[in-house]
Amino acid sequence: MGNREQEAKIDYMHILKEQFSALQTEHLELRRKYDLQCASSTQNSAESENSLPSKLLSITASLLEKPRFSDIRFKFAGSSKEPLPAHKFILAARTSFWKLDDDVAEIQIPDDVDLDAFHVTMRWIYTDHVDMTMEDEKLLKVCETAANFKLEELKNVCVQQLGSRLNVDNCIQIYEFAEKQSLRQLSQVCGGMIAASWHQLGPAHFAKMTAPLLYRLIDGNTKNVLHSIVSIGREDVLFLYFMQNTAKMPGCLNVLDEDGSTALEKALCSDHEKAPLIANQLIEKGADVNVKDVERGETILMRMCRKENLPAMDFLLQNGADSRLCQSPGEYNVVHVASRMDSLKLAKWLSDNKEKLDLNKVDAEGRTPLICSVLSNNHIICESLIRSKVHLDVTTSEGHTALSTCFLMSEAPNRRISELLILNGAQVNFKIYSQQVPFLNEIVSRKDTVGVEALLAAGADCQVTDERGITACHVAADVEATEIMSRIVEARRGLKWTRDHEDRTPLDISIGKRDLKTARICIKGGADVNARDKNGQTLLGKAILANDDEIGVFLIEHDARAKEQDRINGKIYLESACERGLLNTVRSFISNGCKLNSRCSTGYSLIHAALSHEKLDVAALLVNFGCDLESKVALSAAGDVLEDGDEGWSTKQTLLHRLIDDGDQPGAVFLIENGADVNARKEYSNPIEDDQFTPTHMAISWAQNEVLRALKDRGANLCDVDVDGRTPAHIGVREQNTEGVKILLEAENVEFIPLRDKFGQTILSQSMAMKDHQMASLIVERQPHAAVQTNGNGENLLHQAIRQNDIESVLFLLAVAKADPCRAITDGSGKTPLHLAAIAKDEMILRNLILVNDNVNVTSADGTTPLLEALRHRNDKQAGILMENGAEPNLKDEHGENAMLCAVRSGSLDCIRAVADSLKTNRYTRNKIGYTSLHICALLTIDKLPKRTTSSDVIELVLSYEEERNDQLNEKQFASFIDARDADGNTALMIAYSQGNAGVCRSLLKRRACMGQRNNGDVNVFTYETATKQLLLGLLESLEAEPRWSDGDTCDCGSRFSLTSRKHHCRHCGRHVCSKCSETTMPIAKYGEEKRVRVCDVCAHVISTGTAPRGAIRN
Prior knowledge:
By secondary structure, the chain is mostly helical. Among the domains are: 2-165, Potassium Channel Kv1.1, Chain A (2-Layer Sandwich), CATH 3.30.710.10; 289-427, Ankyrin repeat-containing domain (Serine Threonine Protein Phosphatase 5, Tetratricopeptide repeat, Alpha Horseshoe), CATH 1.25.40.20; 431-528, Ankyrin repeat-containing domain (Serine Threonine Protein Phosphatase 5, Tetratricopeptide repeat, Alpha Horseshoe); 631-656 and 668-789, Serine Threonine Protein Phosphatase 5, Tetratricopeptide repeat (Alpha Horseshoe), CATH 1.25.40.20; 1026-1105, 2-Layer Sandwich (Herpes Virus-1), CATH 3.30.40.10. 46% of the residues lie in helices and 4% in strands. Strand 6 (567-568) and strand 7 (571-572) form a beta hairpin. Helix 14 (300-306) runs antiparallel to helix 15, helix 38 packs parallel to helix 40 and helix 49 (909-916) runs parallel beside helix 51. The protein is elongated.
């Protein structure tokens, strides 16, 4: 990699140099043209070519080596070539070297001048051009020629070109030339190049250079002069160095270079033929053979050893090198260095020089050369040292010997070395790691079976413990070294299975790691499977605690026993195994004779322990072996399980009850599916506490729907009721357990749907009462006729929903349950849902019922229509809705009253408007006793009217329809309506007066109602017995118009009218009177009557005084 990078770098530099040379040539050409341009410059550049300087230069170039105008010749000494013509003025322009007097016609050129170089020089003189592509040799000769003839400009060009061409191959040649020509700058550049490339230069490069020049080159351009001289093998230059540095020796001979080497080491490592001679000369001049380098602090002998330079090592020993000298701070010697080098030559050298070497030297880490050779897995050196009788059991600071190092610290145990060490008596019973860990334990921990066998064969003690009480067997168990444990058991009979600091035997460790192979070997070797730790716990108990089924089976199969007193958290081993789901352990327990139906800690059978921890596979195993499923127990009042036969019990229940109470659905389902009694009830010593719940009641109450489904599938009686008569379905509806009720409805037998509890509720009615329509829809879907069931009042669910103003339930019953909207209540009233909706507060109920009813005029048993029902309850909105949807207002009930009469009787102004606004309404109809709407108004006392409504308001509203409507009556018809008489002959005024209804009386009198009309009992308002006559007098006083005249055969005083006793009428009150009762005449101003007219005595007095005369009115 490095070589390729260096080659790439050299190529790159070569390219740069070529580019530089090209640029230099271009620069010279440009400079020549520039000089020419400057010389020939005129004001008109277009005429420059025709200028005198330009033409002179052009003519000069054309005269090169031409006889034209020639006035001098160059003659070459020692050459047969023709003389070269030249021109004095051109030569004079370039150099002053030659004397060009007029009488000089020929110049002699010495024979040492190179002709080719001279021609190049002449070309430059005439043309100012030189070819820069010429070879280095030729360029050097041109430069030399230019220097000889004082052509400085050409010399400088050549020097620059030579500087740019410098490389490893030509730098020495150019340096010699520069020194010869005294070219200082070029010489320095060449010296720097030589110094930088010194490692690439060898003796051959300097073979032709003179000693003084070479010494001057080295001295001026290298840092370590002596090292550089040694590396090129020039004794003559070395002699010059000794001559120049006599005063500095021998100190200068031991100087280290950048690699930490002395000149002596360089000489010893050099491969040229003069190297030994140079080394001897250095020794003779006082070079130190024990110098240490700076980087490692190693002697020359150590460094030569690392390079396996055996001749150099012998040379050093022969010249007094100290082989026992140690490196600092590592404190190792040359033998330590050799111990890491796999070399037969070094091994032999150590053996040959063992007397001169310290073979047992301990370095700073406490390691001998033997240990170091073992660390390096260097069996060659190791064998050589052992044969040299080194100490085998020297220990390091950590207690390691060569043997332990061979096994533990080398890259891979070298059996050859370990066998050699053991055969030569190396100790095997020692402790390592600061005397804490037995050597055998460490070998076992590394699972080195071969090593353990070797140590056992050498007599290693297996019972030796470390400071934590760990033996080799403990370690073998811990690392699961089955083969090693087998070797130890076979090699050492009668082992003691001791416990370590954690109270573990090797068997405990093997079991803890679930290493059954090793555990079998331990048991085979005598380990006690029933041994107890300091807490009294056995291995079987620990295996159960660890939920280790495999280990539990293993221990039981190897004679582990569970005694009655053996407990885990107060529970016997079998119960604990059931709780933890240790299927195979439980099977092994039962197969080995454990009691199957023994009670666990909860008082129930063992199946409870398995089910309570969701270990269904264990529970299934117990069932297969015949475990009791019912497991009935007696409980105290506090819920504690009592012993059999204890009379203080409060409740008795089965395991199924317990699991449902605990919410253990998987366990309960398991019991049910495996045949537990699904209809079992709890038993109570006090019957008052007995709620009569079956498992089905319990499951649905706690929303344990998986249990519920299992009970249903296993044939549980779904019609069983609790103490309140509720089936499980009732409980599910009450608890809003929709999923549970759905499961019950999936049963084949759903006889529980129509069953009622003690409160009269079926499951459907209960869901409707709770407005749980989702559940109700499930019930109706399963049994559609459930919605028509009636309660004790003869009402079905639709009737009840309407009464409760439950629009959601109504819509549900109509849309989902398909309830009959025309079905009447069966209590004898005959009211239909429409009748109930007419008095409901939510008008949407009525609207929806109208949509599904063909007849809005359906009647109840008493003939009441929904419209009449709404009016009687003052529901004007419902009445209006019914009227809008075709209700007939003139249909009468059993009393003969139509909608108008019912509206008036209700006293609701809005109801009256709702009915009277319809043109279809007969406002003048009478009931069976002859009452018109006015008669009914007369009966409306304050207790029969809505709040803030008076009888005056009602009658005024009724009369307004007669006075303001376009279909109003004529005067006679209106008078007949006002004075209409009922079956008893009473007018509305008479009834109002008898009821003390002053407002109605005034409204009627305002419309000239007849005051004197008598009923069938011959009684009128004047003769009707009252406590006082204040009402009558007030009415008379308030008259604004003369009432219509009454008619009759007798006067109120009892006189019968005849020819002699004529009939008269009081012009104030209109009643018929005799002459005796109407003797007074007077004008009636309020009537506008200015003439005196006949008035009765009562009216006369009222008109006169405002009070009635005493005795004027007889009752």
